[in-house]
Amino acid sequence: MKIICSQGQLKNSLSLVSRVVPSRPTHPILGNVLIVADKRKNEVTVTGFDLTVGIRSSFPAGVEEGGVITLPAKLLNEVVSRLPEEEIVITYEEKEEEENPVVGIHCLSGRFQLRGMKGDEYPDLPVVEGNGFSLPGEVLKEGLKGCLFAASSDETKQILTGVHMKGEGDTIEFAATDGHRLAVVREKLVEEEGEGEEEGIYGGEKSLEFDITIPARLLRELERILSGIKEEERVELYVAETEVVFRLKEVLLTGRKLEGLYPEYNRLIPHSFEKTMVVERRRIIDSLERLEVFSDQKNSLVRFKLNPPKRELTVIMEAGEIGGGKESMTAEISGEEFEIGFNIKYLLEGLKAFSSHEVKFHFNGPVQPVVVTPLDGRSMIYLIMPVQI
Amino acid sequence: MKIICSQGQLKNSLSLVSRVVPSRPTHPILGNVLIVADKRKNEVTVTGFDLTVGIRSSFPAGVEEGGVITLPAKLLNEVVSRLPEEEIVITYEEKEEEENPVVGIHCLSGRFQLRGMKGDEYPDLPVVEGNGFSLPGEVLKEGLKGCLFAASSDETKQILTGVHMKGEGDTIEFAATDGHRLAVVREKLVEEEGEGEEEGIYGGEKSLEFDITIPARLLRELERILSGIKEEERVELYVAETEVVFRLKEVLLTGRKLEGLYPEYNRLIPHSFEKTMVVERRRIIDSLERLEVFSDQKNSLVRFKLNPPKRELTVIMEAGEIGGGKESMTAEISGEEFEIGFNIKYLLEGLKAFSSHEVKFHFNGPVQPVVVTPLDGRSMIYLIMPVQI
What we know:
6 helices; nine-stranded antiparallel beta sheet; elongated; homodimer
């Protein structure tokens, strides 16, 4: 194997894929990244895989001699990231007998040697088979931003540790819930209505049709990858029997779907409300962040006092032994005076997932689910169960 | 007590003093900061103290009613740092009977209450008595930068956990050693020679005369405080029987001296050498930082190969099982070909403490102490014991 590549591209690929490489691998080779040099394509592919989530990243390189090798992810990443931005030459002579062959990394400033492991033992990423859908990267990004935080982090809750994604026609619905709150985002593939729909603006893509639950861990990696792409870039989604694959221009992300039936969350969302309140989103977040200082594991209750005639919302946090705080802000309130309590952490996380300048709270009684929506026209709801005061 | 002050000034003072407040105080009140409002001076003073190191910071404020109270450092810091940049009003009604009085913090956006503890139980900072010396802040900053890193972090080594500071005439010598390396910096109070010395450019200050060892921990706080001051600001140093006090314009730092005789380090520094080598400091640091990736607890040896005819230094790190690296760079070498080994961490720390473009290594044999000096005219040496190859 002999590769001539740029330090920058190798560094980027390594930092993308090393995140899924476990620091304490169950088998030594899983602590390595797989490097494949394709002479015909003049392309290098770097893969990290922990048997659950896998990332593969490719970049163009001068491949004088093709080959396959695995190298310790952490060490390789540390060496490459410290090298100056110049050409790097990676060489490795394949010999049958050697179990841990030495791989050379040369550049202008010096020469390094790393002991690798042969590539044949490295597990294969799942093969992409099944239905493919082409999605705008922005749609995925927005969908995940609006609901990923609400997935359960409790591994025993299985299906709730994932995000439910349902594609139907030209719409994807993203949903996540941990039992205390529910976030649902609906994204259309085409934003402009009426424009070019008849001519098939999807670029030949078929109408969406999938119903899957994907582990939040996998989607956090997707979110990270998406944060680095260009606005117009598209993502291919392949849904197979047990796996799901996201394929971008130079990155491929793969992982298992979560099995089981996702709860019928739409039935939980009330459609009529007795009172509503519109507040500035940034203002209420700032207040809650200050009050959150007084919360701890025992006490996370924030009280809302709605005063319609004064057009005022007061948020109150009481933490007997250490103190407490109270802030008031302008709010447009319909209905009568009213008090209700929330878990401050859940409330803050939800409000931060919106992007709108203002949000609208929809209430019924003090123990009935509360629905928060943005005022920017996006189809997104955050349902949160109140805490009894 | 009633104080009207700016959020920014209170925040700065709190972040300065909270660093010394222990997170697990031996007595509850030591987890608090002391707040003193002086009506006559219109000044607020905030103090943090862990019985060993104390910091006091003052700032001007509107004091409508004087008073003394202590408040939980962490909680107060978190609340104040999240408040918008506006006026803050702090109020507290002194009542004899209350053990944990409630202190109010009001600003435009809201009202907070924190439970404090009365100030009378808060321990006094050591009183400043003894000789006072006025030192330029820059001199202290440079002296500490050049040697603080070399103090021992092993608490059992007592006197070696400090920095030795010796003032004599118009010179301060800073020294620190942990037994493996020694850093000595000599700083003159007046940089320009011959200029105004006769008229007493020190501004009336007396000739220096002290010989003290100060805990590195205290000096790290001083370094942090100095990083925020103006270039021309001066620091008063008071040396008392058991304590030492650094007084800046608005900050006071106090702590215990280390007792015992500091080793006679000057006797350890050789004065004649067989070989020397001049290298670019940044270049050798970059190489060593890459090679350091291969070091671990078992292996920290970096080898130097000096090749005078080729005007080349090669640095080599071998880490058998995982690999290794080798880099070469230009160096002006006097003497014969030569090999020597170092602990890579110690070497790097020393090189980073210099500021010069080039450094000069002075060698005798491969097991005799090596001396590194800067080539920028500063009086600084770094002595490091080689590691046998």
